């Protein structure tokens, strides 16, 4: 797995920050977010970048089974209250079964997003300071 910076005080759901082209991106552990038994990430643990930097988030997953294309007309609605923070925006039936499409904006509560934004700003500042020290 890529090298992550883990400053003190991070909540357990955040594995650390990934330096992606000079931006500190928070890495969210899906296992901890969804209350699964956490396992130490392996060397080849997939990091899934959502949205372009600097507002990007990164998801740390156990594995990726496949990458599939789904057209909007195949999306099925998800009833309110049937996922954590209603983060499942839709369901899609693919060859492997039913897949839940997550809305990155709803993975964390508003208060959690605000706290994470503050931590991310500090991590970005730290990266900038290190860049200024480069010869």
Query: Rg to the nearest angstrom?
Result: 16 Å
Give the helices and strands as they follow along the chain. Answer: EEEHEEEEH
Shape: globular
Task: Supply the CATH class.
Answer: Mainly Beta
Q: Please tally the β strands and state the result.
A: 7
- For this structure, what is the CATH homologous superfamily? CheA-289, Domain 4
Strand content: 25-35%
Second-tier CATH architecture: Beta Barrel
**Based on helices, strands and strand pairing, what is the structural class?**
alpha+beta
Describe the structure.
This protein has about 140 residues and is an alpha+beta fold. The chain has a single domain, classed as CheA-289, Domain 4 (OB fold (Dihydrolipoamide Acetyltransferase, E2P), Beta Barrel). The protein contains 2 helices and 7 strands, in the order βββαββββα. The protein has helices at about 30-35, 110-130; strands at about 5, 15-20, 25-30, 45-50, 55-60, 90-95, 95-100. The strands form 2 sheets. A 5-stranded mixed beta sheet has the order 1-2-3-5-4. A two-stranded antiparallel sheet has the order 6-7. The longest helix is centred in the C-terminal third of the chain and has 23 residues, at about 110-130. The two termini are about 30 Å apart. The mean pLDDT is about 85.
Salient structural properties:
globular; OB fold (Dihydrolipoamide Acetyltransferase, E2P); single chain; 5-stranded mixed sheet; two-stranded antiparallel ribbon
Topology readout:
Blueprint: E1 4-5, E2 14-20, E3 23-29, H1 30-33, E4 47-50, E5 57-60, E6 88-94, E7 97-102, H2 110-132
């Amino acid at each position: 797995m890529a090298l992550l910076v883990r400053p003190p005080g991070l909540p357990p759901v955040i594995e650390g920050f990934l330096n992606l082209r000079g931006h500190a991106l928070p890495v969210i552990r899906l296992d901890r977010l969804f209350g699964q038994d956490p396992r130490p990430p392996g060397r080849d643990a997939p990091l899934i970048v959502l949205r372009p930097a600097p507002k990007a988030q990164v998801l740390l997953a156990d594995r990726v089974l496949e990458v599939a294309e789904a057209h909007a007309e195949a999306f099925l609605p998800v009833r309110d209250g049937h996922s954590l923070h209603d983060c499942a925006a839709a369901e899609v039936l693919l060859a492997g079964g039913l897949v839940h499409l997550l809305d990155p904006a709803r993975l964390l509560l508003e208060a959690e997003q605000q706290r994470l934004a503050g931590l991310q700003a500090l991590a970005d500042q730290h990266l900038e300071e290190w860049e200024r020290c480069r010869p």
